[in-house]
Amino acid sequence: MFLADSTTPNTWEAIGILTAVAGVLIAAYGTFSRRSLERTVTISPDAASKQDLDAHKSKSSQDVKGLHNKIDRVQGEINGRMHSMGRDIGVISGQNDLQTQRLAQIDAKLDRLIERKHQN
User: Fold this and answer.
1) Residue-wise pLDDT tens digits, 63-89
2) Are residues 78 and 120 in the same domain?
């Protein structure tokens, strides 16, 4: 009933501001509460041994080498495709030039035929 009776803009502005502030506070609380959970550090009694860490390091370096090899392979394929496309574009460009020359010759011949027809 209170909202229905209030017609002044100041009341609606105050309600809007309070709603926005409440939303910001709820969002901030959610953000900071998750951060504290993410930063929780626990020490396990089953700590990893040096051998486990070395095995993990070795596997990680192998994975990195594998990824670098895969990147190099893909880059080689891309370079090959670009080279092939460059050749194809060169061929098409040459064909386009020949077609343009041929059209110019046909145009000149048509002009001569039209001039002869008008002379006769």
Assistant:
1) 999 999 999 999 999 999 999 998 999
2) yes
On whether the pTM is more than 0.85, the answer is no
- 23 within domain boundaries: yes
Where does residue 3 rank: exposed (0-12), middle (13-18), buried (19+ CB within 10 A)? exposed
Structural domain for 2, as ranges? 1-41
Number of compact structural domains in the chain: 2
| Buried/exposed 7-42: b ≥16 CB within 10 Å, e otherwise | eeeeeeeeeeeeeeeeeeeeeeeeeeeeeeeeeeee
- The answer to whether 6 touches 12, Cβ cutoff 8 Å, is yes
Q: 111: exposed, middle or buried (C-beta count within 10 Å: 0-12, 13-18, 19+)?
A: exposed
How many Å apart are CA 83 and CA 49, to the nearest integer? 51
Q: What are 89-106's pLDDT values in tens digits?
A: 999 999 999 999 999 999
